[in-house]
Amino acid sequence: MALQPSLRPLIVAGSANAPHTLDIFLDYVCPFSAKMALTIDKVLVPLCADSGKYGGKVKVIFRPQVQPWHASSTLVHEAGLAVVRVAPQQFWPFALALFKQQGEYFDIPTSTITPLEVRSKLAKLAESVIGSSLANDFKDLLELKGSPNGGNAVTDDLKYTIKFSRQNSIHVSPTVLWDGLVANEISSSWGEKEWNDFLAAKVAV
């Protein structure tokens, strides 16, 4: 499905010109999303690489899925979008690092700290991935500026991702679309065999 050019780094596997598309809606603070993200990295990234079985045929788009019943969800997704801006090639490594440490951003651990403290923790994680030279640029994007309710430099990107989910009636993560249609059979429990079987049946080019 469509993806605004500034968010091209959300294509985490395959070529942007691949005719088939897997849109995978994930929330950084959802355990099932974390499981699926690790499977994407282990299975789909090599399968959809240029040298892979489905190279040039399938692309995988990470769709940020903010789940507002988790108070920190907005904050962690802002961090991901900030990395898209300052270090686009490092988005997927950062996303994986955040998924692996997602427990630090669950409801109870973040209930006793402020949003600024959450952003500070995220900045440290980002620096460990993107390097110290870009850390200040990352922090600057997340700084609240302008009017008292005006958001930050990635608010418009966050709004785009939320509007995209809402207009397509995506309510929870993980949800997967194959060529624009919800593929309810896909599960976070899937491994290499299930994904290979699915792609073998679906890829038509």
From TrEMBL:
Give a Pfam family name: Thioredoxin_4
Signal sequence residues:
none
Where the record annotates domain Thioredoxin-like fold, the positions are 11-113
Matching Gene3D superfamilies: Glutaredoxin (3.40.30.10)
User: What is the superkingdom listed in this entry's lineage?
Assistant: Eukaryota
Entries under InterPro entries matching the protein: Thioredoxin-like_fold (IPR012336), Thioredoxin-like_sf (IPR036249)
Transmembrane segment boundaries: none
Name of the protein in its database record: Thioredoxin-like fold domain-containing protein
The record lists the lineage as: Eukaryota, Fungi, Dikarya, Basidiomycota, Agaricomycotina
